[in-house]
Amino acid sequence: MTQRLQNVVGYIRGDTENEQRNGGGLRDRLWLNGRESARLGDFIGSRPYLVGVPNTYYVPDEGDTSYAEFRTAQRTRAQMLYVGGNDGMLHGFDAATGVERVAYVPGLVLEQLPELADPDYRHRYYVDGSPTVLDARHGEAGTGAWFSLLTSGLGSGGKGLFALDVTDPARFSESNASALALWEYDPADDAAVFGEDDQQLGYIYNQPSIVRMENGRFAVVVGNGYASEAGKASLYILFVDGGAGGNWSSSDVMRLTPSAADNSGDNGMMTVSLLDRDEDGRVDLAYGADLQGNIWRFDLSSTDPAGWEGHIHQLFSGIRAGERQVITSTLEVGRHPDGGLMVLFGTGGEENYGLPTTQDRRTSDSFYAVRDFVDGVARSDTLTRADLAGRAFHQTTLDDQDGSSTMVRYLDDVDTSRYPENGWYLDLAGTERVVDGPSLRGNRILFSSLIPGYGVCGAEDAGYLYELNAWYGSAFPTPVLDVNGDGKVDDQDSYYPSSDDTTRYVPVAIATDGAIFTPKVMLDDDGGQETKVSAGTNGALTKIAEAPLNSMQLGRVTWRRLE
Q1: What positions does the domain PilY1 beta-propeller occupy (predicted)?
Q2: How many distinct helices (H) and strands (E) make up the chain?
């Protein structure tokens, strides 16, 4: 290792000795007022992941106590918070103390590290993907030793993903690094397995999933991401024991690529949702969304991976006003009350990641609910907007309790005597789009929208919080959102167009202070009130009161997303 590279490595690890202010040639890390800054890089696209007591969806075979024993052995391990940074490292912090316990520099970004120390450095992304951690099992049949697997893409930092063994924080040390770093998979590996002219691995933005497949093996499942060499959308299944010695083979990785004509044109699979329909702890169905507005269904029910390749179906093609709609947010899948499944998702992309956006494509975005497995049979046709029931909103301002006003949106009355046969859609307006995944709770679909502003770091962004009946695409009979800000959800949160009170609308959306992520819902101690809590792009914390979900609606209507 050259002296220059040694200095860069020390710099990345926080050493300031060779910075310009100390007589060296490396970039100073200072605030504008001359105060020394933290030596961590920025966290932008990576969402933190908290890990404590071992966790999995594993369904043991009769008499198998291996996971219970593993969980017991690791029940007192330190809680860790993992997040990717644009200083070239995946960081692991002790959740109780904030002390960093581990930092990993993926080989995928090594060549770009010197840029961080360059005095003329301009911001770039490094480890900007969001990690996932779940327990998995070694072995060809998934019967070996248990361990906690962390896996992550790089987001805008590069093409590929990596995997670490984070079972026991007490083992985190430089001398044990080779045991912690399991594997990486990049376009060069893709070329080695599938051919130099067929590289399909791109920039992976969404969290990979860690699951057990029907053949018994544990795997990392992820969409191929954006800007691959081949420009297609693909689903990757990388078995956790693959990549031994840095070498991948066709038995280690499956790549499922739809052959339909719509899988073209600078495409990429941005998000994947996995289901265990027969509840045996093994994935048997996947839905993937791509940048051309398509939803693909993958039948993974065969115990032979070779059987997965021929069972790919285009469920939906999203084209509005002649333009394809980008899908970058996660999909939500629920059990339809009348049988089958409902796949719910919004369309849209963010400019700051360099993805195709609505503004680029000259069309507006939408929210969709698409039904599959009607009467127990998987669809063989491809749905379009014309097959769905359209919904359109109106908007108005309502007075708040403090004398100000809030913009709300409402729908015309929807026929709820029967479910829409194929699903429904709600068109958004202007540059409004959905970039964060929806949340299905009972019969409620909750999602947020982004209306991009032009301030620094989203300071001028705007958006709406929506809550509709998931099955009808309608408003509820009574309000579910605290529109007037009095901390209660009651009839005062309705909209009466005239003073005679004969016509009443229940708002389905409320303008938010800046754009927010889809909120988490918290239940008050007495169960009489719920509160939605979310961080916004302007840095503020948003809280909105919500009517409590009827306990009769809490039946098993959704699957946990396996990850």
Answers
A1: 40-373
A2: 6, 32
Task: Give the full edge-to-edge strand order of the sheet including 366-372.
Answer: 332-335, 341-346, 366-372, 423-427, 389-391
Q: Could you tell me if residue 165 is left (phi over 0), alpha (psi between -120 and 50 degrees) or otherwise beta?
A: beta
Instruction: Name residue 546's amino acid.
Output: E
* Residue labelled with tokens 């509005």: 320
Query: pLDDT tens digit string along 432-472?
Result: 999 989 999 999 999 999 998 765 555 578 999 999 999 99
Q: Answer whether 142's CB lies under 8 Å from 212's CB.
A: yes
Nearest-5° Cα angle at 283, 279 to 286:
120
Show the 3-state SS of 204-268.
CCCCCEEEEECCCCEEEEEECCECCCCCCCCEEEEECCCCHHHCCCCCCEEEECCCCCCCCCCCC
Q: What is the pLDDT of residues 485-504, one digit of tens each?
A: 888 899 999 999 987 777 89
Let me know: does 28 contact 39? Beta carbons within 8 Å.
Answer: no
- Cβ neighbours around 172 below 10 Å, total: 19
Q: How far is CA 68 from CA 59, 75, 352, 488, 553, in A?
A: 11, 10, 44, 44, 32
The upper half-sphere exposure of residue 288, i.e. CA atoms within 13 Å in the direction of its Cβ, equals: 33
Question: What is the torsional sign of CA 297, 299, 300, 301?
Answer: positive
| Residue 178: its H or E element | helix 177-180
DSSP output for 484-545: SSSS--SGGGSB-SSTT----B--SEEEESS-BPPPEEEE-TTSS-EEEEEEBTTS-EEEEE
Q: Which of 305, 287, 312 is nearest to 437 (CA)?
A: 287
Please give the residue range of the domain that contains residue 26: 1-39
In whole angstroms, what is the distance from residue 527 CA to residue 530 CA? 7
- DSSP assignment of 287-309, as one string? EEEETTSEEEEEE---SSGGGGT
- Residues whose CB falls within 8 Å of the CB of residue 375, separated by 6 or more in sequence, listed in order: 339, 340
Here the tokens at position 42 are 């920025």
Which amino acid, one-letter code, is at 271? T
- Average pLDDT along the chain: 88
Whether 7 maps to a domain, the answer reads yes
pLDDT tens digits along 254-280: 999 998 788 987 899 999 999 999 888
Question: What's the token pair of residue 198?
Answer: 């067929």
DSSP of 393-460:
EEEEEEE-TTS-EEEEEEE-----SS--SSEEEEE--TT-B--S--EEETTEEEEE-BB---SGGGTT
Q: Is 179 helix (H, G, I), strand (E, B) or coil?
A: helix
User: Into how many domains does the chain fold?
Assistant: 1
Query: What does each C-alpha distance from 406 to 76, 307, 468 come to in angstroms?
Result: 48, 54, 19
Does 273 reside within a domain? no
Q: Is residue 188 part of a domain?
A: no
Nearest Cα neighbor of 272 from 326, 232, 234, 217 is 234
Give residue 325's identity as a one-letter amino acid code: Q
Q: Say if 2 falls within a structural domain.
A: yes
